[in-house]
What we know:
The protein is 35% helix and 21% strand. By secondary structure, the protein is α/β, with parallel strands linked by helices.
Amino acid sequence: MLVGDSGVGKTCLLVRFKDGAFLAGSFISTVGIDFRNKVLTVDGVKVKLQIWDTAGQERFRSVTHAYYRDAHALLLLYDVTNKASFDNIQAWLTEIHEYAQQDVVLMLLGNKVDSAQDRVVKREDGEKLAKEYGVPFMETSAKSGLNVELAFTAIAKELKHRSMKLPNEPKFKLHDYVKKEVRGSSCCRS
Ligand SMILES: Nc1nc2c(ncn2[C@@H]2O[C@H](COP(=O)(O)OP(=O)(O)OP(=O)(O)O)[C@@H](O)[C@H]2O)c(=O)[nH]1
């Protein structure tokens, strides 16, 4: 399930992953909730991801709350060009702790790193926050596609590992896997 403030790029991230395209042009906010399926082959095993795209707008919060408890994984997004979306991450985490399953797979994503000139949230700030909460972290761009496949593949691998519980298979380390991340530009407006 994709969560985070309105406009951080949840729908675009999902469309980039599903269709390999970027939704340029006017911004159409998600109403309530929407979902798309994608089948990935992970280490020779087919994994069907059902990905729920939630509305970031406050007025839909009660609708999205109802979906948290069925989510196996949450991708929590902020927009690196929007400080408020980053400041709201703590509130999102509080909501997640309240409504999601305790063992939900969680990943923090700083999106829109292609907009280097408009960046206001430093990579280190994202990393620091993620470390504080023990959550894997990556920076992404739905526009350029940077790290999008990697983020979803990481989730798929973790979920596959958890569901198959093969005793002889080495434990999948999500925190290590996300280190394959390609670094975007760290340029800042301020
Ligand atoms: N430059 C840039 N723009 C992006 C990126 N991702 C999304 N956008 C733009 O940001 C705006 C919002 O994107 P959405 O994907 O609709 O945002 P959302 O988080 O789904 O918003 P809600 O549905 O309201 O919760 C759109 O104008 C997108 O074109 C990105 O990676 N880079």
